[in-house]
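Example (one chain per record):
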Amino acid sequence: MSNHQEELNRFFNKEKKIAVIGLGYVGLPIALELSRKFSVIGFDISAARVELMKNKIDPSNELDAKAFEGTDILFTHQLEDLKQAHFYIVAVPTPVDEYKTPNLLPLQKASETLSKVIKKGDYVVYESTVYPGCTEEDCVPVIEKGSGLKAFLDFKVGYSPERINPGDTLHTLTKVMKIVSGSDEESLEVIAGIYGAIIEKGVFKASSIKVAEAAKVIENTQRDLNIALMNELSQIFNIMDINTYDVLEAAGTKWNFLKFQPGLVGGHCIGVDPYYLTYKAMKLGYRPQIILSGRGINDGMAAYVAKKIAQHLIAQSKNPKDSKVLIMGATFKEDVSDIRNSKVFDLYQELKDFSVHIDIVDPHAFSVEVEHEYGVKLSEQVGTQYDAVVVAVPHKEYKTLTEEYFRDILVENALIVDLKNIFKNKITTFTHWTL
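Predicted structure:
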């Protein structure tokens, strides 16, 4: 029997435990799936979140109580409990700061935590989105410094990028192929064996940790650029008085046309990941042109929409500071409660700069979280006499609304801004504008 198979058997026989550090949108689903096959320690620095999970409650509101059943998992915020593990998975956030620079602090803190518990023969796998080289150049040295151990010799390292898509019930963790990588052949086989036990679609063995890191960061960069193209086209077609969605429907009849749509690009991946790649590229002396151009277009869409609303108000002889606008939807995408990096709040701020009075509602977002994250209070209910309404997020609750509904809450000659064109051919008595 090979060495890596013997090592895998120790995990399958529960002689050794697996720990997942960071139990958010990414970490919790992985921890629970692994705990159906292995003995798992779920670690999070928030005692309050840990308490919720002990009671079968997902703080991210993605998983129901059934997901916690049939599992062998210890939820903890105690460092001492982590020492029982021999295989560590790091799934902490990797955001960017206000200057679009990667914020590696959560990753560094997690690496410091690992340095206090790691032992000879242990494995560390990072899942957080990073730039190529980050695992080996930024994270591993922190573990080495705190533990006194030598990477690749005393402990093994790997990288397996997350592919969690909040709100997606089709492309769930086990149903999407997982990229794995390791610091050597043996670690690659062990890491592949652990993940392969829970991923129905199987694993793809990347040739190196850097390749795996790069693959992750370009997945969302590619999507970001395609949406940027749609956003630029929508601005061009708006000048030409052509409906962008009509154009996309026509062009979409060709077999190889990629069906992307314009919109506000937020969330924890698409609006963030490209900056990790551009940051590293510029540190190496190369300034990306296409990627940054696409980012510039997408980051500017909130200002573009706000300007269109202000222009409508002025055209109606209304002073923006005396006008009321309703924003429907606050989350970064439809039918989820996730507000991370939601560009709706960029739109909110842009409208505020015009001194517009704004109400914002969302059936999925939690008001306490919104106020904590953005300093904005959600309205408890929809008011009346709005001069414009922005349907910013196409939640299922909004898709069934009729023109009669808007007639009750809007003034005469009001504007309906339908960012995802869900009311196409349904609005006749108000100005209907979409990207």
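Caption: Residues 209-239 form the longest helix (31 residues).
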